[in-house]
TrEMBL record:
The lineage of its organism: Bacteria, Bacillati, Actinomycetota, Actinomycetes, Mycobacteriales. InterPro entries: AB_hydrolase_1, AB_hydrolase_fold, AB_hydrolase_sf, Epox_hydrolase-like. Pfam families: Abhydrolase_1. SUPFAM superfamilies: alpha/beta-Hydrolases. One of its GO terms (cellular component) is membrane. It comes from the Bacteria. Residues 40-270 form the AB hydrolase-1 domain. GO terms for molecular function: monoacylglycerol lipase activity. Gene3D superfamilies: alpha/beta hydrolase (3.40.50.1820). This is AB hydrolase-1 domain-containing protein.
Length: 286
């Protein structure tokens, strides 16, 4: 395991690269190392990356926490890798575990994920390979209760700026930050290998070849004790409207909150979402 880093890009976070098992992961780090650690997991839409999903929240969270925000393999500045022989979540969990180890984080971690990152966070709950202090999922259901819009609209992109804007409209409303969000995503979406990594992972396969092994994740959730926050957007078209309430009824130590936003409240309402997160982290810390 080899860790390298670049000089500070901003006063808020530091960009680092860790090399494990033959692949390179880019991650952002902010805050003081002697504070409790918050790990931020980004969404899986075209052009997703740590700074794209969490750029407006990192400065707020870093005032009180040590923040680590990795780019999943296939995204951002990490290597463009897609696995076809294992579950969607297992390689991501292995990757973020290696990032925490490289940063010498051994204490329990608050994990906060958005959309696909939220699903990865929830998949940690039953059998996390590192200690959890809390889990927050924003717009991520663990892979369940998706609407047809998710696959029909987010699963495709024609490579143009205009079509990427179409995708982003499902993630957030057209506020003053909308254009900035599209530009940030376009930078990473145009990175060599990103399109193929995402498009190949979403490639449909015949029903006869699908893995039909049962997924007992929901049953396992009933035994978890980790404090869990589930945040849904009131105007989200990508998931069934009551996904958060369904999960909250299954996870013992959890609560669901609905915000006036589209799919990703931290893009629509970063201050309100950050306050909600910080209040929840305070409860979990106590």
């Amino acid at each position: 395991m080899k860790l390298t880093h670049t000089p500070d890009k901003t006063e808020v976070f530091r960009e680092r690269f860790v090399h494990t098992e033959g692949f390179t992961t880019r991650y952002l780090e902010a805050g003081e190392n002697n504070e409790a650690t918050v790990m931020l997991l980004h969404d899986g839409a075209w052009g997703g990356a740590s700074d794209v999903t969490w750029g407006r929240c990192i400065p707020i969270l870093a005032e009180r926490y040590h923040v680590i925000a990795p780019d999943f393999l296939g995204f951002g500045g990490s290597d463009k890798v897609t696995y076809f022989d294992r579950s969607t979540y297992a390689p991501r969990i292995k990757q973020i575990t290696a990032v925490l180890a490289s940063a010498n984080v051994v204490e329990p971690v608050h994990v906060i994920g958005a959309s696909f990152g939220g699903s990865v966070a929830l998949r940690l709950l039953p059998t996390a390979p590192f200690p959890l202090k809390s889990v927050t999922s924003i717009g991520g259901s663990g892979g369940l209760w998706k609407t047809h819009v998710m696959q029909d609209q987010l699963g495709r992109w024609d490579g143009t700026h205009a079509d990427l804007a179409r995708v982003v409209r499902y993630l957030m409303t057209e506020t003053d930050e909308f254009t900035t969000q599209v530009e940030l995503r376009l930078k990473w979406a145009l990175a060599p290998g990103h399109y193929r990594a995402l498009a190949s992972a979403a490639m449909p396969i015949p029903d006869a070849l699908r893995n039909r092994q049962p997924d007992d994740w929901l049953d396992q959730l009933r035994e978890t004790v980790t404090p869990t926050l589930l945040v849904a957007g009131e105007h989200d078209e990508l998931f069934e409207h009551d996904w958060a309430a369904r999960l909250a009824a299954t996870i013992p130590n959890s609560k669901a909150v609905v915000l006036d936003s589209r799919h990703l409240p931290q893009l629509d309402r970063p201050d309100e979402t950050s306050k909600l997160i910080l209040d929840f982290l305070d409860e979990a810390d106590q």
